[in-house]
Prior knowledge:
27% of the residues lie in helices and 32% in strands. By secondary structure, it is α/β, with parallel strands linked by helices. The chain folds into three domains: 44-150, Copper Amine Oxidase, Chain A, domain 1 (2-Layer Sandwich); 161-228, SH3 Domains (SH3 type barrels, Roll), CATH 2.30.30; 242-460 and 524-562, TIM Barrel (Alpha-Beta Barrel). The strands form seven sheets. It has an eleven-stranded mixed beta sheet with strand order 24-23-26-27-28-29-30-36-21-22-25. Strands 5-6-7-8-9 form a five-stranded antiparallel beta sheet. Strands 19-18-17-14-20 form a five-stranded antiparallel beta sheet, with no helix packed on it. Helix 6 (329-346) runs parallel beside helix 7 and helix 11 (522-535) packs parallel to helix 12. The longest helix has 29 residues, at 2-30. The protein is elongated, with a radius of gyration of 32 Å.
Amino acid sequence: xxxxxxxxxILKRVIIVLILLATTVFILLKAQNYxxxxxxxxxxxxxxxxxxxxxxxxxxxxxxxxxxVSMDDIENFFDKYIYIEDEINEVVxxxxxxxxxxxxxxxxxxxxxxxxxxxxxxxxxxxxxxLPISEMTDVYNMELTKIDxxxxxxxxxxxxxQIKAYTKSKVSVKWKKDILxxxxxxxxxxxxxxxxxxxxxxxxxxRTENGEIGYIKTSKLTNFTTIRENWTExxxxxxxxxxxxxxxxxxxxxPDRTGQKIEGVNVVSPSFFYIDANGKLQEHVxxxxxxxxxxxxxxxxKVWPMVSSSEMLTGEEGRKVxxxxxxxxxxxxxxxxxxxxKCVEYGLDGINMDFENMYQNDKDKYSxxxxxxxxxxQEAGVVTSVDVTAPDGDPNWSLCFDRNVIGDVADYLxxxxxxxxxxxxxxxxxxxxxxxxxxxxxxxIEYDVVKPEKIIxxxxxxxRIWTISQDGSITGRSTVDMVDINKMIPNNVExxxxxxxxxxxxxxxxxxxxxxxxIEDGKSIEAKVSLVTxxxxxxxxxxxxxxxxxxxxxIIREELEKGTN
Length: 565
């Protein structure tokens, strides 16, 4: 009997151990459902229904009822280009259609040039800069709510969809989609929750009025109501951009194009604006320019005039003037304000920033200028396109652009795919060979990480005829408009097709010299436009109007249409 009791006790102990092991395994399997998303002991920050507290680099602070978030975290969640401008000792931040600056001593903020009083300024604490984000809801287009009893702050972007729902009965909000998961909040019958997302497995992710995020069975919710739609802005150009530059100097009037209709074109860029020797914005619009704008709009063309740095400013002196603007926050803002005024005054649809021949050391400052310009243009409903050259080359010509930043913030980056061989070249060559254009496009897309749909491919409507002496030196580099090319070629000279360049080439004797020319015509342009379809680019632009043959616009239109079908 004693032996039997001993065996029974051992069996009971084994059963108890097995039960404990099974319980432990169950708990381990379900452990994640008992973890807490909230970070204990600090203020929890919810941005667009995501608890980002664990991702914050510094804790959120509340002082005198003002919510402060570190500049590092603002950079992470709202504005990756935020910085401290030493010239004015203020933090400058851009977001959507706003550029704002806020200082450390005065309780005010400047938003798009207008000053607004605030209840707080930026502060420096623990070797960090903190911004009074609760005073900056206008800047970041958001709604901020403090739930003091829970130590939670919620931030909702006002351009994002928000859906509310009501509870059919008293419900427990679970941390995970599991009835065994921890309850993070309870909502009474008829209570309101924000419906974040619905899953096919019968659960709805919600946010309660206490700021808690969790899950409720969808069957326990009713009256789903959209209280705010996702806000999206229609693109000004629905399909591919088909643009041309229309150049006339400050000494000339805008061309009279009355009665002209250019097939397929949807954007024109007249050379209306330029920077003078004092770094000020000047114009040559006048009555002829007003008539030009009216002509363009009557034909359905958008008008994106050039803002040029090279109309008056050339060489070293020009670089110095541009540098003085770019390296001064005050001067940048003055120029931006002048551009805004001109866009409003003339009812413009966009601008084309054409700053060239800048110091390589000013690359970041030019990016800052574009970063600060774009929100003001967006506020005015104006498209910003920015011209850049090929990625590799002269420091002041190619290496002065941060194509990644420009392509990120501007509406369009215009790749001026010319001159492969230009006036400064030591050997003759094509103006824009297909293989060179494609190679540099790929660099911009892959290395500079610019979205293809933001790239406009700039193409030349001209070429050069090179004159080579007997000793091999170049004695002439004459520019020839496309429309005049055939006039320059003797009747007995045969064109040779180069399949790498996608161009015809001619070479012939002229006295003791040799003439060489790589031809731009309908066939070479068609090949270049095909890159728009191949890489899904944003469109094309041609430099410049009136240099082309009559068939060019049909060729461009038909080739662009291939990419939209």
